[in-house]
Structures are given as C-alpha cells and as structure tokens.
Queue: 2 jobs
Job 1
Amino acid sequence: MSDGQKTRLTVDIYGYQYTIVGTESEYHIRRVTEMVDDKMREIGNRNATLDTQKIAVLTAVNMVNDYLKMEEELQEMKMELSRLKNRTVVNG
C-alpha cells in the first residue's frame, strides 16, 4: 500500500459494527478483526455472565499475553541465531 493510502473497512466484532481505517491491507485488517472476534466469542462462551466490556478487556489481556510470549520467543531465537553465526565464523 502506498504512502497516504488508507484502507477503510466495516467489520463485525462480537455483534457490533466497527469501521476500521488503517494503512494495512484489507486482508490484514480482516484477519486481525476475525481473530479478535474469535477470541471474544471463545471467552464469552466460557463466561456467559460477563458483559461485553469485560469480555473485551479479557480478550485484550489474553491477546497481549500471547503477543509478549511470542516476542520473548523471537528474542530467544534471535539470540540463538546470533550464537550460531558467531560459532560458524569462529570455526569457519
């Protein structure tokens, strides 16, 4: 997507309509919003007494937790790759 071009997309998340505007592709925006919707439905189905706001907050907490775990895993992989590269240079 070129500079200044915005994607505008109306999506459904947990029964509510939202217009999302961003620089990402329509595919990316749909993928993100579908993941949020899926997680909200998963949490809502397990906790029928929670209102939408609490489901949304728990969804955010769960998704940020997943993100941080993946970020930590990525850093570990980068460190391991760096160690392997250094070992190859030394033994090369």
Note: The mean pLDDT is 94.
Job 2
Amino acid sequence: MYSSSIFDGNLYDFSDKEPQRAPIGVFDSGVGGLTVLRQLYRQLPNESIVYFGDTARLPYGIRSQAEILQFAREILTWMQQQRVKMVIMACNTSSALALEIVRQEFNIPILGVILPGAKAAVQQGKRIGVIATPATAKSNAYKNAILEIDRNVQVWQVSCPEFVPLIEQNRIDDPYTIEVARSYLEPLLQQEIDTLVYGCTHYPLLAPVLRSLLPSGIKLVDPAVHTVVACAQELDLLGLNNTYPPLPTRFVVSGCPQQFAQSGVQWLGHTPMVEVVGFTETVSQL
C-alpha cells in the first residue's frame, strides 16, 4: 500500500485555535526512526504523527556536516508546511551535527535523541560503550554529552558504517550481519563495558543480534525510549498534549515507497501507506 505521487495537500486540517491537535513530526534517514515512532505509540497514544524518511539520501552517517545541515533545513521547512507542533529529530547523526544550529533558525520545538540517551546511559553504568554511525562517532557528541553529565564515567565509541545499509536492506538475520556486529562489538567487550548505547535509531532493530553477542550483564540503552519521555514533558510544559483521538500516521519518504513499506511492515505490524516527496540535492556541488 503506497502512493508514488507527491502529496501537496495538508491531511491535518485542524483549527489554529486548537494547536494541541496538530501532529508531531518525526524524521530520520530511513526506517530507524520507527523505533521512536513505536515509543510514541506506546507513551503518547493520543498524538497524531507525520513520519518522514529521507530514504533517497541515506545513509546519513557517511555525510558531511554541510550535507546533514542542508537536509535538516529542507525537512524542517517541509515539516512546518505540514503544520506540525513539534519535531523529533529521530536521527543521531542529525542530532549530532545539525540540532543546535537549526534550533536557532526554526520557530518550533525540535528535540534530538543524544542528550536523552546520554542521561539514561549515565544512570545505567560507569563503563559505557557507544555504537554509532561514522559521522556521529567522529562528532564525539555522545562522549561529550555523557562526560558533561558525569566526568567519572569512561566512554568508548565504535563507528559502525555497515549497520544502517544492512538494516535498510532487511538483512538483520543474515549471517554476515552477525559477523559484522561481532567485529564492531569486540573492542568494546575488550574494555569490559557495563552499558551499551544505541547511537543510531536504526540499531534497536538489531537488538536480537546484539544481545546474542553480549554478556547478559551489559545494559542496553535505547535513546528512543528516553527521547519520547522528554517529548511528553515538553508537550506538557507547552500545554500541547492532544486529548482528541489521533489521526492516522502519515508516512512520507524521499525515495522508494515500496521498499520503505516492505521494510516497515515488520516493525509496524502492518503495511503502511507511503507518500513521496522529493528534495534536490545540491550541497555536493558546493
């Protein structure tokens, strides 16, 4: 179930006098943000949601900051056109490289995933491992956030460039994926970590694989869970909690709607209807 035509209309026709009925915008490079969406369904079941997956330009983890910043600006501008009341940047790479900049540029609450994840990690352990995309690992965003909260912990990061493409290709149960995961976890296990942070919203989808390779005593931190807790607090603070029945979630991608629908069905429990909107990639020409 998908639509290959660009959707120009506004499905959410709510009154400006009732801003609480406006949807929450969620965006990621692909299906990884569905881990955040699932937490929204669990923790904030009354909220309507617009989900955008920038599948035409994934993976974000190998992109430059200039590219990530351009993508975030384009998506946020589009989100504003959909009249969302808040945006969750359900992408660690965007949160690491663009969040603070775009917060100054857009007059809308924008939440990232790194700070909530860092806070949760510090509460869990003292020897913390972070698996992340190359761009997020290189930014040291998690390490800096964790150490800013507690200087007494130790943090190790591993760049995992192959994880997102494998997940997007629905190869989670592939033996190759297990071997890749084993190689990424090895240096962290050598440091005897007690906590592992999913430094990419795609990675909770690998939980069965990672758990099979980790000692049972290692705690797993999913920033998606804690990001939605922060979202609930922000909605309450702003008086924007929706008390009406939610509207159906809108799924929009920049790439192939069929592939997203096929990948998303196992995480959503149904085949989503997927719309397409395109952005022109120009930053690489700079």
Note: The radius of gyration is 18 Å.
